Amino acid sequence: MNELGYSVSVGQLPIMYQDNRSAMQLLAERGPGVVSRSRHFQVRYFYVKEFIDNNAIQLVHIPTEQMHANFMTKPNQGKFFRMRVWFLLGDDI
Which residue ranges of the chain lie beneath pLDDT 50? Predict the structure, then answer.
């Protein structure tokens, strides 16, 4: 984070938000190879797992409705569309 220009205090860990509990459990807690179809995760798994094990990042679950990154990757309608537009404009309601 320091290399990106963000200051991080000694006791403060950067937070990585995830809305998929299964992915969190498979990649961060149980390990690769638990499921035969998860072998292709190994490269990404070891990269993220190394940061978690070294206490370089903190993995936190938040509900899909609160995941603002979904605005760019999923269709948004009605209340969620308006909520995310206002968030992007800087008026978080």
Answer: none
